[in-house]
User: Which sequence fits this backbone?
């Protein structure tokens, strides 16, 4: 998929619309992560992926041929710069929110695994001089229900 622009002004206008829509969706995802509701962020995943791919494609095209946007009016180009700055800020915010969510999730999984290891009985050895095997000293596998 690619933008279908008729001239420089049209291309810049379409890039502005694309950037602003992507910024809005990522801001909504970030807000959901910050509110500890990652399941709400999931509703935007497909559209964000599609728009992010289009954004990447168009950004690469413009970087390779600046003339595609150079003829646009200075006001439009300035709006695109502002939209891109807002997009960068939202990406940074999302990065912090996702990192925080990842840290919390890893901590929960670690705590559950440690609790399971503590509650496991130690094995008994057989024969003279046998040693007990402590499960908690070995790696412990756990299975998570993804529906929960």
Assistant:
């Amino acid at each position: 998929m690619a933008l279908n622009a008729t001239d420089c002004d049209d291309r810049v206008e379409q890039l502005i619309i694309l950037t602003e829509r992507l910024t809005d969706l990522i801001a909504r995802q970030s807000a959901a992560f910050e509110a500890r509701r990652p399941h709400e962020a999931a509703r935007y995943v497909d559209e964000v992926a599609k728009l992010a791919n289009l954004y990447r494609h168009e950004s690469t095209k413009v970087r390779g041929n600046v003339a595609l946007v150079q003829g646009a009016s200075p006001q439009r180009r300035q709006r695109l710069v502002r939209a891109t700055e807002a997009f960068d800020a939202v990406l940074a915010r999302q990065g912090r929110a996702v990192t925080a969510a990842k840290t919390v999730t890893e901590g929960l999984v670690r705590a559950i695994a440690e609790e399971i290891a503590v509650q496991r009985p130690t094995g008994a050895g057989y024969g003279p001089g046998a040693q007990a095997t402590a499960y908690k000293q070995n790696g412990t596998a756990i299975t998570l229900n993804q529906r929960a």
Observations:
- The chain has one domain: 8-123+133-137.
- The two ends are 37 Å apart (CA to CA).
- The mean pLDDT is 84.
- Residues 8-123+133-137 form a domain with the Methane Monooxygenase Hydroxylase; Chain G, domain 1 fold (CATH 1.20.58).
